Amino acid sequence: MADTVNHEDKSDNPDEVPAGMPASGENACRHCGGSGKIGTDPCPECNGTGIVVTPIGGAG
Ligand SMILES: [Zn+2]
Predict the structure, then answer these.
(1) pTM score, whole prediction
(2) Do residues 43 and 32 lie in contact, with contact meaning Cβ atoms separated by under 8 Å?
(3) Where is the composition biased (Basic and acidic residues) (predicted)?
(4) Ligand 1 centroid distance, CA of 57 (Å)
(5) 37 CA to middle of ligand 1, Å?
(6) In total, how many domains does the chain have?
(7) CB atoms within 10 A of CB 19
(8) 5 CA from centroid of ligand 1 (Å)
(9) What is the full per-residue pLDDT of the chain (60 aa) written as tens digits?
(10) Cα of 40 from ligand 1 centre, angstroms
(11) What is the per-residue pLDDT for 50?
């Protein structure tokens, strides 16, 4: 019986949650300051959107 499930998410942003979560909202990416870019490169945290989906009411 294969009972191995990988719950590890290698995301670099611990605040990020999957889209569609009920208690979540869009926030300016703290990694790039909402600009969507790190220097001349697209921000890897928000994929260049400047927006990340984070939980509402969480610590922080
Ligand atoms: Zn970003």
Answers:
(1) 0.50
(2) yes
(3) 1-13
(4) 21
(5) 6
(6) 1
(7) 8
(8) 29
(9) 667 666 665 657 777 766 655 667 788 999 999 999 999 999 999 999 999 987 766 555
(10) 12
(11) 95
